[in-house]
Amino acid sequence: MKKLLIMMLICAPFFAVAQEQEYKERFEQLGSMLPTPNSYRTASGAPGENYWQQKADYSIKVKLDEAANKITGSETITYYNQSPHPLNYLWLQLDQNMRAEGSDSELVGTATFFNDTIPGKYLEQYVANGGNSYDFPGGFNIESVKNADGDEMDYLVQKTMMKIRLPQTLKPGENISFSVEWNYFVNDRMKGGGRSGYEYFEEDGNALYTIAQFFPRMAVYNDVEGWQNKQFLGSGEFALTFGDYDVEITVPDDFIVGATGMVQNPKEVLTKDQAKRYEKALKSTEQTFIVTEEEAIENEKEKSSKYETWKFKAENVRDFGFAASRKFIWDGQMVELETTKPFAQSFYPKEGNPLWEEESTKAVKNTLVLYSERTFDYPYPQATSVHAASIGMEYPMICFNFGRPDKNGEYSVRTQLGMTYVIVHEIGHNFFPMIVNSDERQWAWMDEGLNSFLESNVMFEYYPDLPYSDNIPQAVTGYMKSSKDQQRPIMTNPEQVLRLGPNAYSKPAAALNLLRNTIMGPELFDESFKAYAQRWMFKHPTPADFFRTMEDASAVDLDWFWRGWFYTTDHVDVSVDEVKYFRIAQDESDMEKNTKAPEGDLGEKEEKEMKTDFSDGPAYISVSETPEFWYGEYRNKVDDEAIKARYADKHFYEVTLSNKGGLVTPLLFNLEYKDGSTEQKYIPAEIWRKNEGKTRKMLILDKEVSKIVFDPEGELADTDNSNNVFPKTESKTKLDEFKEKGE
Ligand SMILES: [Zn+2]
Q: Is residue 727 a contact partner of residue 612, using CB atoms and an 8 Å limit?
């Protein structure tokens, strides 16, 4: 690869040839790159007439043993086989086993010492990341798997997956109930990291638990993957089946618990006053405190050893998470959407204040409002933001978010920004992938990318004063022009991605912002994006369903866009090679001013022969008499003199462009006129359809131009501004730089 690049740069005459060959077929339809449409998933991107999905209902009882940091649980799962296939076994996810000693995550973890010193704190994390978990007895201990009659069932624990071998085939349309008992030790999140775990506060001797992946969960069985039982290595998140949850959580009786779903027994677990405030908060559009800071501080001191049980119910969710601590302050308010009235709420310790009481629930509300406008009205009864140091992690109706002021309660704009966008992001995950339930284990971008895109839209709309600049085309140019060894196409499994942040979050989000703001326009984009969200709400979409729906709903052929942005690591780098200026000669005296005759084709020219500015003035084109053979029997003859006169005042600019980055792109020019006015010109990407490496556009203008700038605001993600401007006053060409280096 490197060799080829050097060849292309040295041998200028071969440059265009090599480039054109490499860049061909950028506009071909994705065709066989997408799965063949069928009766489950149609060519339009909608679910087909035979679309089906499984269902799993859960009844779970867990106890959180505070002293041992241990969860003990039992669950009854009722699994509905709604597929047309008989099943002889079931697969469940045992995600905690990633933390078990000798797990694959441990074995395949890699690390390198970059320096000859390392701070002790980092060494511990480093050892964990590099392969050996810190001293911690992680992983599920499965105590029993029993059928509805209480008889032991035959099962296999296969690393992070568990297979239940069914004694009888589960036929289409049938369901089966079975029970699992288990326990595991909860990890200290501040030591070994992780999506769930606890943070211990030494000052008051309390922990804040953010608990997830805490029970064996049904894997997805569908028409695309069969069983999605790819092992959990840590990056590829979850693929889960929808169902109804009935969950009882037993904790010390001075704990406050937030969870997926609605609490069923508030009067039992809250004080009388708190229960009243909770009832009031549910119906109020004003922020209401259910547990105040003073109550939380009092609570911290109690350390009750008695236990009580919080009961939750959630319908049609793909997972369940909860947070528990005696440190929690709790506030909430109702959010009025067009058709639903969800409850926005926040749980946080005093350490989160004053930032959290000011911003958290507000951010939940802003997110629900904008996301609902762009997709569907938030269908769940509540959305919860929980304060948790250094992570952002999402579950249905509940998420864990970072952002903590310093000990004096002071915080920087960066802390506020980080806290705000992480809440927007994690609450936003309710839409993707909790409701539009894509397969995270296979495609991180389908939830992270779509969600980061909407996150950026909330931030720009509701927080214009915060210095947010992520997830837009300008933000990903550094990544996209970085070494191609460090990149993978967006369409890559998250385990193989080298830099998950830009690959699964900001690059796809930037692509969608580009699509919305520049290529399709907000109206057409929003309508199509909404079509996708509504078609796949409470279903399991794939990338093809998204790609197809966006085109199906808009009549915009985007195959070139998906191909370039999602299937390659090409970047946008358009060079304005030359701009030639022409006018139509009106008489002989104009022609006498000509210094050089214009050339017509796209043939290769030495760079030194190209014009670098407008100093030569226009070249004049004479209009000759139209030959007789152009006139058929029934056609009128044209008046050549009138045509010539009509264009007397026009200024013709022939702009020659080359595609240096490989990613085909629309063109956006800023034209600065001699009279000081400016104008923008947009040209769709199809201008490259016949030659993906080089193209030429004639701009016919009313006024004389002094400067032409390609991608003036960076909204096309052009990675090199030095070749975007004509006259070429800005900097040397790449070729000059290369030659200088070589000599
Ligand atoms: Zn995310």
A: yes
SS3 state at 582: strand
- Centre of ligand 1 from the C-alpha of residue 426, in Å: 6
Q: Smallest Cα–Cα separation from 57: which of 242, 320, 264, 222?
A: 242
pLDDT tens per residue across span 320-331: 999 999 999 999
Ligand 1 centroid to Cα of residue 445, in Å, is 9
Q: Distance (Å, rounded) from C-alpha 371 to C-alpha 344?
A: 14
Instruction: Tell me the three state secondary structure of residue 115.
Output: coil
User: How many angstroms does the Cα of residue 456 sit away from the middle of ligand 1?
Assistant: 12
User: From CA 554, how far away is CA 542, in angstroms rounded?
Assistant: 19
- Distance CA(428)–CA(422), nearest Å, equals 9
- Return the residue matching tokens 């804040």: 208
Give the confidence band of 133 by pLDDT, cuts at 50, 70, 90. Answer: low
Cα-to-centroid distance, 740 and ligand 1 (Å): 45
State in Å: Cα 455 to ligand 1 middle: 10
User: Looking at residue 737, what is its pLDDT?
Assistant: 52
- 494 CA distance to ligand 1 centroid (A)? 13
The alpha-carbon radius of gyration of the chain (Å, integer) is: 31
pLDDT classification of 597: cutoffs 50, 70, 90: low
Query: Which tokens sit at 547?
Result: 């790609």
Instruction: Give per-residue pLDDT as tens, 362-407.
Output: 999 999 999 999 999 999 999 999 999 989 999 999 999 999 999 9
Q: 231 C-alpha vs ligand 1 centroid, how far in Å?
A: 20
Model confidence, pTM:
0.92
DSSP helix, strand, coil percent of the chain (3-state; round to 5): 30, 25, 40
Instruction: Map residue 423 onto helix, strand or coil.
Output: helix
